[in-house]
Structures are given as structure tokens and as C-alpha cells.
Automatic annotation (TrEMBL):
Domain PDZ: 92-160
GO CC term (a single one): outer membrane-bounded periplasmic space
PROSITE patterns linked to this entry: PDZ
Protein's name in the database: Carboxyl-terminal processing protease
Compositionally skewed regions (Basic and acidic residues) per UniProt: 432-441
Top-rank taxon, per record: Bacteria
InterPro entries, sorted: ClpP/crotonase-like_dom_sf, CtpA/B_N, PDZ, PDZ_sf, Peptidase_S41A, Tail-specific_protease
One GO molecular-function entry: endopeptidase activity
CDD domains found in the cross-reference section: cpPDZ_CPP-like, Peptidase_S41_CPP
Organism: Nitrosomonas cryotolerans ATCC 49181
Length: 478
């Protein structure tokens, strides 16, 4: 038996060594660099091969080589950070479908934490949202199957499925003594990326729920329509990025470019390879793909100058943080709400062939002024109690999260908690605030509705700004 294991190990070491050498030489040749190859970790590869051999010879059931290698790849990527992952054929296909804005499922943005699935944010107008699934909920069972031991991709596969089919989700929620059980009916998740309306003449509201292929184009259409429909010149605009989990980078650049001066820096990235060093500006070269016509051409001139407030909360992540950071750094918009999620890392999809790929973290995002978004997020100019949620999961709470890159980890966590505490405000009318809080906790807030407290506050603040601007203009003219 020992001879078999030893032979298997030697063969495996040889195979792995050959593959790694091939990949290394290929990478060097493709990048045309003079980079010296790193020596192969022979001792670690020997240990790996011994484990592989023992499983093949001694495990209680026979295991296919493909399964063992695939799980080893999964383990390598999952052990890096919460966002790197191996994508098999189904996962790769689902990723491509998801960016188009339509797929079958429940409508939950999730991450893996301690072997369980945590809800980052329910997507607006989906079965999960209407059922009352909340940010921070810990999913422990899908139907009768325990989540512990599943990969994140396996859990997502179970939650997705044919429309009109039921699934029972068991969650643990902070503050609840017993697990909560939800029976949801899967549906086609059609995410309307851009929603817009005139709150009143001269005041526009635009909400972006997720950044997709068509987000920039849809925003341009919405802005043209709003400016045209207003019976008076546009005075103010509110951009709502709350609970927007992010999406495609070019969509974030396009949205930023709609409001920023031409060629203004939107975001830059820093990583180890030349491909990971990017600077993206407010120009078509940074947000258009292929030979498409520039859909931001012909926007009303007021989109670059109209006073703005951008709404964010702990569910604003990734691409939405890029937009908020760019508008804030260029002093184009006041940012109002609560500290954002802090997902400031770049995931690159690297195809492996056979319709599989890896999603690998390759860089960090930085705002135009050099602030790292990773694990810290965007700090609002105006913090608001109604958007604060102590139970909300953030990037800094995830195991193995990538460090900020500029701040020491301990200082980063301390500062994140300090920012949360600074956002607490004692309500002037406790009774009314308690009623509002109960209403908020018992049912999901419909952003943009008459019950949206932060929107009401933003409108009042925006009107005060415009009133002061008008007053100063009159004094100057006089």
C-alpha cells in the first residue's frame, strides 16, 4: 500500500510540477517580461501529493481525480479572500447571465462567512426583499439541507432554480432567540438598473439598483427625460445608491462621467501586474465597450452643474462606492447616509478553457484623492441615524478580507467602529422616531417613497442649499 501511495505521489508531483512550469513559462511569454520564475514549493507539493494518494487509497468511498483536483482549486481560491472563486461551467454561465440583468432565483446578494451564507443585501422588488430577508441574516439551511460544508457557489445554485418553484430558507438573525423560517417562491429576477422620477418640478430623483451592461445608457435616457419633463429648469438632483451591491466597472465609470467634467479621474487601481494598474477617466474610452456610440452625448448641460446629493448606506458596495467616492472627491455631490460596505477590491475573470474560469482578486480601488475603498468604504459628508444599522454586515467583518492597503488593520477596524458611533444622533422626538423605527424594522423601506426618511431629509437639505445659492445670486445682481 505504501508503495502505491508513494508512486501515486511521485506521479502527481511530476504532473503538478510540469503544469506549474508550463503555466509559469506561458505567463512570462505572454507578458513578455524578464521576471524570474519563482522556485516550486517541492516540500508542499510532496505533502499535497501524499494527501491526494491517501484519499485515493484509503478514503471510505472511491473519489474521482477530477473532484479532488477541483476541490483543491476551490480551496486555494476560497482561502485567499471572500471574493476569489473557481467558476465551473454552470457558475461561469450564471455570472455572464447575471450581468445582463435577468436570471431565475430569489434576489439575494450573499457572501460566505465561517462556512455559512450571510446576506449582504436583498435586491429590491424580488421575492427575498418582499419576504423580509434582511442584511446580516445568516442562512443555515436551504430546504432540509444544512448550508455548513457547502461552497458559496453551491449555495447560490440551490437558491436559484425554475420560476414558481418554492424553497424554504432557515436563517439566524441577531436579536431573535429562534431561527426564522421563510418559504419563498423563485421568480425571474429582472433587475431594473435605473429608476427615476420627478419628486416635484425642478427636483429629480434617480436610483441605481445595480451596475449592469446597460446602466450608463439607461441613466442617460432617464436624465434626458427628467430634464425635459420638468416644467421649470432643474434645480437639484438626488442620486440614490443605497443597497446597490455594485456590478460592472464600466457602468460605474459611465454613471460618474454623466455628472463629472470631461476627462476627470473617476477611479484608479493598484495591483502587482501591469494589467492591474489602471486609471479610468470620465471619457468614452473608459466606459464604452467595443464600437458603441457614446450614449452620454447630448446630455442636458445641467447634469454637470445641478446641485446634487448622493445617498448611500452599508449596502452600497463596490461600483456604487466608486461613484460616491468620485463625486465626493471632485466636490460634485454631497454624500449623505451611513458608512458604505467597503468592497474596494478588483476581481478579474480569468478563463481557463472548457468554459471554466477563476475569479481572482487582482487589485484595489482608490478614489481620485487616493483613498482606498477596501474594508473602509466611503464616509458620508452628512451621517444620518435613519440609515445606520449596527447589525449590517460589512467587508471588514468578513473573514480573510483583503486589507485596506494603506491603513493598518487594527487602526482600520477601530476607525470603522468610530465612524459608526459618530453617525448616532439622538432623535428630537423620541415617540415619533420610535414609530418610524418600528415601521422600518417590520417592513422593508421603499426607497424613493413618501416614507423614505433619508430622501425627505436630503430634499430639505438640497432646497436649503439652492435657497442660499439663489439668495447670493440676487445679492450679487443687486
Amino acid at each position: 500500500m505504501r508503495d502505491i501511495v508513494k508512486k501515486t505521489g511521485l506521479i502527481l508531483i511530476g504532473a503538478i510540477t510540469g503544469i506549474m512550469l508550463s503555466l509559469n513559462f506561458s505567463a512570462v511569454a505572454n507578458k513578455e517580461t524578464k521576471e524570474v520564475l519563482h522556485p516550486l514549493p517541492i516540500e508542499e507539493l510532496r505533502t499535497f501529493s501524499q494527501v491526494f494518494g491517501r484519499i485515493k487509497s484509503d478514503y471510505v468511498e472511491q473519489v474521482e481525480d477530477k473532484k479532488l483536483i477541483t476541490e483543491a482549486i476551490n480551496g486555494m481560491l476560497v482561502g485567499l479572500d471572500p471574493h476569489s472563486a473557481y467558476l465551473d461551467k454552470d457558475d461561469y454561465k450564471e455570472l455572464q447571465i447575471g450581468t445582463q440583468g435577468e436570471f431565475g432565483g430569489l434576489g439575494i446578494q450573499v457572501s460566505m462567512e465561517d462556512g455559512l451564507v450571510k446576506v449582504i443585501s436583498p435586491i429590491e422588488d424580488t421575492p427575498a426583499f418582499h419576504a423580509g430577508i434582511k442584511t446580516g441574516d445568516l442562512i443555515i439551511k436551504l430546504d432540509d439541507t444544512a448550508v455548513k460544508g457547502m461552497t458559496l457557489n453551491e449555495a447560490i445554485k440551490r437558491m436559484r432554480g425554475k420560476p414558481k418553484t418554492p424553497i424554504t430558507i432557515t436563517v439566524v438573525r441577531e436579536g431573535e432567540t429562534e431561527p426564522l423560517i421563510f418559504t419563498l417562491i423563485r421568480d425571474i429576477i429582472k433587475i431594473q438598473s435605473v429608476k427615476s422620477k420627478l419628486i416635484e418640478p425642478g427636483y429629480a430623483y434617480v436610483r441605481i439598483t445595480q451596475f449592469q451592461e446597460q446602466t450608463g445608457e439607461n441613466l442617460a435616457q432617464a436624465l434626458k427625460k427628467l430634464f425635459k419633463e420638468s416644467s421649470i429648469p432643474m434645480k437639484g438632483l438626488i442620486l440614490d445608491l443605497r443597497n446597490d451591491p455594485g456590478g460592472l466597472l464600466n457602468g460605474a465609470v459611465a454613471v460618474s462621467a454623466a455628472f463629472l467634467p470631461n476627462n476627470a479621474l473617476v477611479v484608479y487601481t493598484e495591483g502587482r501586474t501591469a494589467d492591474a494598474q489602471m486609471k479610468l477617466h470620465a471619457n468614452p474610452e473608459s466606459y464604452l465597450r467595443g464600437t458603441r456610440q457614446d450614449y452620454l452625448e447630448g446630455l442636458p448641460a445641467g447634469t454637470k452643474t445641478v446641485p446634487m446629493i448622493t445617498l448611500v448606506n452599508g449596502g452600497s458596495a463596490s461600483a456604487s462606492e466608486i461613484v460616491a467616492g468620485a463625486l465626493q472627491d471632485h466636490k460634485r455631490s454631497i454624500v449623505m447616509g451611513s458608512q458604505t460596505f467597503g468592497k474596494g477590491s478588483v476581481q478579474t475573470i480569468l478563463p481557463l478553457g472548457n468554459d471554466t474560469a477563476i475569479k481572482l482578486t487582482t487589485a484595489r480601488y482608490y478614489t481620485p484623492n487616493g483613498q482606498s475603498i477596501q474594508a473602509m468604504g466611503i464616509t458620508p459628508d452628512i451621517a444620518d441615524e435613519s440609515e445606520r444599522d449596527d447589525k449590517r454586515l460589512r467587508e471588514v467583518d468578513l473573514n480573510r478580507h483583503l486589507s485596506n492597503g494603506k491603513a493598518k488593520e487594527a487602526e482600520l477596524i477601530t476607525r470603522a467602529h468610530e465612524i459608526e458611533q459618530e453617525s448616532v444622533k439622538q432623535p428630537e422626538n423620541n415617540q415619533d422616531q420610535d414609530k418610524d423605527k418600528d415601521k422600518k424594522n417590520n417592513s422593508p423601506v421603499e426607497f424613493g417613497s413618501s416614507d423614505d426618511l433619508l430622501l425627505i431629509q436630503a430634499m430639505n437639505y438640497l432646497k436649503n442649499i439652492i435657497e442660499k445659492l439663489d439668495h447670493n445670486t440676487i445679492e450679487t445682481d443687486g
